[in-house]
Amino acid sequence: MRFHEIDWENAFFKTYFEKRSFGHLLVNFNRIWVIHVAMYFFYTAYNAPRIYSPEGGSAAMTWSTVALGGAVATVIMIFATLAEFSYIPTTWNNTSHLTRRLIFLLITLALTCGPTFYVAIVEHNGSGGSLSLILGIVQFFISVIATVLFAVMPSGRMFGDRVAGRSRKYLASQTFTASYPTLGKSGRLGSVILWFLVFGCKFAESYFYLTQSFSGPIAVMTGMKVQGCHDRLFGNALCTNQAAFTLAIMFVMDLILFFLDTFLWYIIWNTVFSIARSFTLGLSIWTPWQDIYTRLPKRIYAKLLATQEMEVKYKPKVCFRSRLLIIHDSSFTRSLYHKSGML
Known about the structure:
The chain has about 350 residues and is mostly helical. The chain contains 16 helices and no strands. The chain folds into three domains: about 5-180; about 180-285, no CATH class; about 290-340, no CATH class. α3 runs antiparallel to α6, α6 runs antiparallel to α7 (about 90-125) and α6 (about 70-85) packs parallel to α8 (about 130-150). The radius of gyration is 31 Å and the shape is extended.
């Protein structure tokens, strides 16, 4: 009765525009891109030293180049943040949060990408020493920390969840638009264990069977030129670089398989967890679906309808059918209740 007195304009804060575009692939799934693309770069850069050091690179150059995986993750987060600006109203409450995140990401990009330029210049001039090695190692660990942070923490909570705070400014949003159920301790623990096993097995298997096995073709095909070829339209511009085109296609295909490995291990471990939960609940996974459905009326009768005070006069199947008739047509409720002995 008091809804007409609510100041709707000031009670809620508009936090997004209702529109759909391909930008949501970045905004909503940025952590998926970070987990896969950044980790693929870490693995491939470590196993492909011929690309950035044809004459045999130093340890400092290897550490620094592998650390660029953190820069890749940061660039993905920057593009996701820029895309998010188009989905929110340009108010101070919304843009200030994204601006702080963007500044933090730019600083992280400088830390994860900048040292590579120094290491590359020093190593190219032959004056690299312990300083470049230490700088490459520090850069690598900063990149790992940044990648784990971007992969685990939702971007909306990177600088604290304002809506979930104690401020009464967002009390209406906490009650209506941002009231999310929370998992219990056992459910959260099961979720953490499930995803830890999925990504643990995925990263181990992908390293040995995708990226490490790919290091041989990379070492052979990097810099390869096909000799004595000619095309009537393009001359020798394309066929000479056929190895480079083939290697690029192999990189893309390897990345696609890197994504598919996650789905494979998710199916495997999800099946294991489902079977374990079925046995925990006292269900047998070997029971045919036909038996489950045919026993359903008896189970409903035994678990829900039958009580200790009730005199069992009818078979469970008959009682269940009368129950369905009661639900179907309420005009026969009293007569059916009387006939089934439940009145």
